[in-house]
Amino acid sequence: MKDQIERALAEIWFGPDGLVPAIAQQHDTGEILMLAWMNRDAVRATLTEGRACYWSRSRGRLWRKGETSGQVQQLRELRLDCDADTVLLLVDQSGVACHTGRRSCLFRAWREGGWQIISEPEIAPDLLYPQARD
Amino acid sequence: MKDQIERALAEIWFGPDGLVPAIAQQHDTGEILMLAWMNRDAVRATLTEGRACYWSRSRGRLWRKGETSGQVQQLRELRLDCDADTVLLLVDQSGVACHTGRRSCLFRAWREGGWQIISEPEIAPDLLYPQARD
């Protein structure tokens, strides 16, 4: 499996910063949950562990989605685009994807001349990140 | 409308290169068609014209999707994520999104230890880009 994963990695074009954009989509409903970034180690971890692992640009480290919040994304399938510079993760999202407590991060829609919020939090952020209360 | 569009732009965080990643999704089926990039002018053009316009990184210019191939993406809705650094275009794709003639650019799936092609071209690329024959 290790060799297979290295072959998977060899086909992906990581940009000058070593990152590839990764779209996460709920596998059965088609809902787009978020866009994040992956480096080689993140793709390795995702394929090895069967759950989404990204590279956090703000924290400068690997980020196993749900490691703090418990809102894990189980990997159903990894896809690659024609230019090999975008990946798509079909996932099964536990709970919510967004740090605001919303199911999807893409919760603002341009309607009638303004950005309108089109979904509400399903869980309070301070329940997702209790340590942030300190 | 011009002022409204400038207000829309003011909320979007364009990266150091002036670009934001843009996911294109077929509005009714949920299929992810492609990921491309937009600068301010591309977002302006998209909202003004009601069809997807991207910034082509390879060509270094605005790229009205379908300008050569005729495979236009009519904009149904523009969405923005929680961090304002990703946009989602819900579109109605005419024909195919991919330059290979496939409906979606994300046509490779990691299955059984290899990248497998999971969809076939619906139209021959040289019919999409006849001038490329010259």
Structure description:
The structure is a homodimer of 134-residue chains. In chain A, the strands form 3 sheets. A 4-stranded mixed β-sheet of chain A has the order 2-1-6-5, with helices on one face. Chain A has a two-stranded antiparallel sheet with strand order 3-4. The first copy, chain A, has a two-stranded antiparallel ribbon with strand order 7-8. Chain A is globular. Chain A starts with a helix and ends in a 6-residue tail after the last helix. By secondary structure, chain A is an alpha+beta fold. The first copy, chain A, has helices at residues 2-11, 40-49, 125-128, and strands spanning 20-26, 32-38, 53-56, 61-64, 73-80, 87-93, 108-111, 114-117. The first copy, chain A, is 18% helix and 34% strand. Chain A has 3 helices and 8 strands. In chain A, 37% of the residues are buried. At the A-B interface, helix 1, strand 1, strand 2, strand 5 and strand 7 of A face helix 1, strand 1, strand 2, strand 5 and strand 7 of B.
Shape, per Cα inertia axes of chain A? globular
Biggest β-sheet description of chain A: 4 strands, mixed
Q: Multimeric state of these chains?
A: homodimer
Give the strand order of the largest sheet of chain A, numbering strands 1, 2, ... along the chain. 2-1-6-5
Approximate strand percentage of chain A: 25-35%
Mean pLDDT of chain A: 95
Work out the largest interface and the residue count of each chain.
Answer: A-B, 39 and 39 residues
Number of helices of chain A: 3
Distance between the termini of chain A: 42 Å
Q: How does the helix and strand content of chain A classify structurally?
A: alpha+beta
What is the C-alpha radius of gyration of chain A, as a whole number of Å?
A: 16 Å
E-strand count of chain A: 8
Q: Which ranges of chain A are low-confidence, i.e. pLDDT below 50, for 5 or more consecutive residues?
A: none
Helical content class of chain A: 10-25%
